[in-house]
Structures are given as C-alpha cells and as structure tokens.
TrEMBL record:
<feature type="region of interest" description="Disordered">
    <location>
        <begin position="73"/>
        <end position="102"/>
    </location>
</feature>
<feature type="compositionally biased region" description="Polar residues">
    <location>
        <begin position="77"/>
        <end position="94"/>
    </location>
</feature>
<dbReference type="InterPro" id="IPR050404">
    <property type="entry name" value="Heme-degrading_MO"/>
</dbReference>
<dbReference type="Pfam" id="PF03992">
    <property type="entry name" value="ABM"/>
</dbReference>
<dbReference type="GO" id="GO:0016491">
    <property type="term" value="F:oxidoreductase activity"/>
</dbReference>
<protein>
    <submittedName>
        <fullName>Heme oxygenase (Staphylobilin-producing)</fullName>
        <ecNumber>1.14.99.48</ecNumber>
    </submittedName>
</protein>
<dbReference type="InterPro" id="IPR007138">
    <property type="entry name" value="ABM_dom"/>
</dbReference>
<feature type="domain" description="ABM">
    <location>
        <begin position="2"/>
        <end position="91"/>
    </location>
</feature>
<keyword id="KW-0560">Oxidoreductase</keyword>
<dbReference type="InterPro" id="IPR011008">
    <property type="entry name" value="Dimeric_a/b-barrel"/>
</dbReference>
C-alpha cells in the first residue's frame, strides 16, 4: 500500500474556489484503478492550505495514474501557458510506503 500527499498553498481569497474545483474530483478518483482513497483536507494551520491525500493499492497504480490522460486533464490549469493564473502558489509532494494499517 502506498500514500501520496500533495500539500497546496492557496491564497485565502481563493479557498472557496479551489474547494469547489476539488469537489468535482471525488467521483473521478473513484474510477481510477488501484486508488483506494482520496481525501481533500483543509488545514487548520497557515503554513499549508490544503492537502490532497491519496491512498493506493501499490506504487505502480499511482505511477499509472500519474502517466494517464486523467491526471493530465486534471492538471491542465497548472501549466504556465494557461491564460488563467493558477490559484495554487506552491506545492509540496510527499510519498510514503505504508508500514502498518488497520
Ligand atoms: C505540480 C504539482 C501539482 C499541483 C500544483 C497540483 C494542483 C492541483 C490543482 C489546483 C488541482 C485541481 C484542478 C482543477 O481545477 O480541477 C489538482 C487536482 C488533483 N491533484 Fe494535483 N497538483 C499537482 C500534482 C499532483 C500530484 C503529484 C498528485 C498526487 C497525489 C496530485 C493529486 C491530485 C488529485 C487526486 C486531483 C484531483 C484529480 C481529478 O479531479 O481527477 N496532484 N491538483
């Protein structure tokens, strides 16, 4: 089992906008092979705004999704040539092998 979290920093005035965008991701992530869980977390501290939490059956399932059109489609807005300024000002990716779980 494998866990990947992407920490996002988003300007305060964009929080509701970003939450609404990720709301639509719930059902999409249900259909991704090997994705066991998808959580969109809002932080109580100011050092980070949101955490995109994903849990996978295997690291290879995560890597397959990373190389998929579904991933590219969801991240189109992050490209610099996009007209619209992306609401995310910084991100920090963390990945983990799961040692124990219940
Ligand atoms: C350059 C790095 C990344 C940034 C800045 C970023 C930011 C974002 C943003 C803003 C969205 C919402 C897109 C929309 O407006 O609909 C999104 C979608 C998403 N991101 Fe990322 N992301 C990055 C890479 C990753 C990685 C490596 C993961 C792995 C956990 C990840 C997990 C997700 C998931 C699960 C979604 C929802 C996918 C869907 O709706 O189908 N992101 N990301």
């Amino acid at each position: 089992m494998y866990v990947v979290m992407n920490e996002l920093n988003v300007n305060e005035d964009q929080h509701e906008h970003v939450k609404a965008r990720f709301e639509k991701s719930k059902d999409r992530m249900n259909d991704v092979p090997g994705c066991l869980e998808f959580l969109f977390l809002e932080s109580e501290k100011e050092d980070v705004s949101f955490i995109v939490f994903t849990k996978w059956e295997a690291k290879s399932d995560y890597e397959n999704w990373l190389n998929s059109d579904a991933f590219k489609h969801a991240h189109r807005g992050q490209q610099s040539q996009s007209q619209e300024k992306p609401p995310t000002t910084a991100n920090n990716l963390r990945s983990f092998d799961v040692v124990f779980h219940t």
